[in-house]
Amino acid sequence: MIRRSQSKFAFTDMVPARVVLYILSFSGFTVSFMMRNDINIAMVAMVKPAPPTTSNTNVTVTSQYCYVTPNASFTNNTPIRLEDQGEFDWSPTIQSAITGSFYWCYILSQVVGGVLTQSFGTKTVFGGSQLITAICSLLMPSAAGIHYGVMITLRSIQGIASGLTWPAMYAIVGHWIPPVERSRFMSSFQGFSVGIGITYPLCGFIIAHFGWRAVFYTTGSIGTIWCLFWYFFAFDTPATHPRISQQELRYIQGSVSNQVHANESMPVPWGSILKSWPVWSIGITTFGRIWVHYIFIISGPMYMKTVLGFSIQANGVLSGLPFICSYFSSVAFCYVADVLVTRQILSLTNVRKVFTASSQVVPGIMLVLIGYLGCDVILVLIVWFIAVTLITAAYAGAMASIVDIAPNFAGPILAFAQTIHMTASFLSPAVAGLLTEKSQTLDAWRQVFLESACVACGTYVVYQIFGTGDIQAWNYPDQKYPQSVQEDSQLLNEFPEKNGKIVKSRSDTCEEA
Fold first, then answer.
1. What is the pLDDT of residues 408-448, one digit of tens each?
2. Which of 290, 340, 413, 462 could potentially form a cystine with 345 if both were Cys, beta carbons 3.0 to 4.6 Å apart?
3. Which residue intervals define the domain Major facilitator superfamily (MFS) profile in the entry (predicted)?
């Protein structure tokens, strides 16, 4: 009997349940962003191209544009094939409505995601949202043939469903991941970077060989298959996991038992959340980071095309590659953050602030530098790659402090913060479009980059003043800290110098030592 028990738990001892959760989280966000972004490249093949215009192909470098010769390594002179001509006469306004409908609805469902997660748990909410998104992807080709309005409806449903994913996954972190491991676990959320990075080249290959419809069938099928793995291997708490080892269970419960209350029905303290400056500081500073991030995601490819003169194929590769690299940088940043805390080099609060500044202030300044590097393409690409990879430091910064300050309510807090900062996902490219509406010259883009840097740096100031890694009193049912929590907080925040303190009451939530 003993041997049988030992063999039964041999695999779980070898692969901890936390590692399985990490893999599920990483792959889940990868699949989610594949289904979210597949339409961006599929739209190119779906819509009939505008009538061609003549252009000068000679090498020309001016103060406004950089033109690359046709025989340069990054250009593509292959004629457009018949199957790439497009099927639909959709105006740019209709195309924007199809893609933009996702983000409007995405923002609206953030708070709903936090509330649903508190009631039904991460397993149901995250898995259900992924399944709904996958089904909509599978239906997208048929919807396109009916009317673009049906596509807008499906994209809206995808946006509502996807808006539930982030609050749901944040909620599970407090139950599963000990405080000293949270920065590293947060790197699993960077699966979205890999999702963005692989979607463009993968979908380009699929379109070239099988047509644009196969793009949606592929991403939808991948999403459906992923849901099966999630159903069998994901669990809301360690105590409900049937295959976790007793050693790991004791370790997790001993680390988080005084911070989370899995067995208590705790109403969300929305009043305390809305009055909390640490919560507001997360939403505001992340607004600036998202603003810069979406300059690279949405406006960046247009800059590469109109100013640097890259072809579509080169544009796709160069736009996607930095996001794949972002995952590896996020792992490094989160590991370094944990080391700085566990070795008592910096306090938890200071670690969060350093990495938050690195994720938006530095990339913001680099955006300005990109504008003034002009047509020095090699330097532009180097700075571009560094800036995109630095953005992922946020997951060891402000994004990780969501779990730090209230592990019991990480889902609702993220929902509230995302309602604020995800507005930048459509405001940022909209402002860039206004600034470059008359001309997409280098001078116009410099204005875009300067404005983005101001937003990034200005919003960070709020987090520098009010951001913290301290657990808030309203995280607990009676708004009183267990003695062990006070001791843990002192260990995390009072070295190498006293920085930050336990917040004693709701009225003290904006205090920062």
1. 888 788 878 888 888 888 788 778 877 877 777 888 889 99
2. 340
3. 24-470
* pTM of the predicted protein model: 0.69
- CA 102, CA 133: separation in Å to the nearest integer? 11
Helix locations, 47-91, DSSP H: none
d(CA 507, CA 54): 65
Q: Tokens standing for 180?
A: 């000293």
Report DSSP letters for 384-434, one per residue. HHHHHHHHGGGGGTHHHHHHHH-GGGHHHHHHHHHHHHTTHHHHHHHHHHH
Cβ-contact 292, 367 below 8 angstroms: yes
Residues whose CB is less than 8 angstroms from the CB of residue 474 and which lie 6 or more positions away in sequence, other chains included: 269, 272, 273, 276, 406, 409, 506, 509
Three-class DSSP category at 266: coil
Q: What is the DSSP string of 435-456?
A: HTSS---HHHHHHHHHHHHHHH
Per the CATH hierarchy, to which homologous superfamily does domain 27-50+99-237 belong? Answer: MFS general substrate transporter like domains (1.20.1250.20)
Residue 117 burial (CB count, 10 A): 28
Task: Please give the pLDDT value at position 509.
Answer: 29
CATH C-level class of 268-513: mainly alpha
- Average pLDDT for 8-24: 76
Whether the per-residue pLDDT at 63 is higher than 60: the answer is no
In whole angstroms, what is the distance from residue 513 CA to residue 511 CA?
A: 7
Question: Quick one: which H or E segment has residue 65?
Answer: none
